[in-house]
Amino acid sequence: MPKRSEKRDTAKAEYIARKSKGESVNLRELAEQQGVTYQTLRNWKAADKWDEAVPKPKRKRGGQPGNRNSAGHQNAAGSHEGAPLGNKNAEKDGAYSAVLFDMLTDKEREVADAAPVGSRDALIHEMRLLKVREHRIMSKIAMYEAEPEDTLHLSSVLDMREPAGRGDKKQDGARQQMGMYTKDSAFNRVMKLQEALYKVQGRIATITNSLRAMEETDRRIELERERLEILRMRATGAVPIGGPDEETEAFDDTGGEP
């Protein structure tokens, strides 16, 4: 009996892991990633019943979409709409929460106060951060490229468990039903890092163009100021004596004293 291909189990684990996250899976792309033909991957999918192994999403507690059981009812805080002021129940990420300076930590307040607000300073600050990020990504790429071609890195883990025990000793998720692990090759990780690097470098190019445009604008303003000063001197007959901050003296075109 021929030995079962390791790629078969790896492809199944990758398919189930993506489907469990709600992602769509392109079988042709998955076949290319695993180094097998599209038809072979389809045969594996049908024979091993991949779709049946995908965990079913749990039914959310509370009303389902379209349910209007609580329509017209007051919430726990009273008759006002929405959650009470300061409620953070729906907060998932600090990046999306409203910034209330009286709720910031001392460190966060220092960062906010030190952040540049001028257009040029803000662009220069962002440029410095992007150059640091560019350096880190390129260092990672160099690290993966130096590894042997067959090196694999753990990418995701799918741990399916079921209750075990009886009575008071019953524990939820105490017994593992299935454990699947997907791994990335060094080449795949380099490809992902290259994509991130292109985005960072694209932003660097945009900021560079913006700073160059500011410099050109400043130069045009300076040239225009010098042109107006020359026109003023011609109109009044006054010329500067000494440095640019010295007083001016007027002369008569006929050669006489002013």
Largest sheet: 2 strands, antiparallel
Highest CATH level, the class of the domain at 118-163 and 174-242: Mainly Alpha
First-residue to last-residue Cα separation: 115 Å
Question: Which sequence of strands runs across the widest sheet?
Answer: 1-2
Helix content: 40-55%
Total beta strands: 4
In DSSP terms (H or I, runs of 4 or more residues), the helix count works out at 7
Shape-level CATH architecture of the domain at 118-163 and 174-242: Orthogonal Bundle
String of helices and strands? HHHHHHEEHEE
What value does the average pLDDT take?
77
Relative strand content? 5-15%
Shape: elongated
Annotate the secondary structure layout.
Layout: H1 6-20, H2 27-34, H3 38-47, H4 50-53, H5 106-114, H6 119-145, E1 152-164, E2 171-185, H7 186-236, E3 238-240, E4 248-250
Antiparallel strand pairs: 1-2, 3-4
Helix pairs in contact: 2-3, 6-7
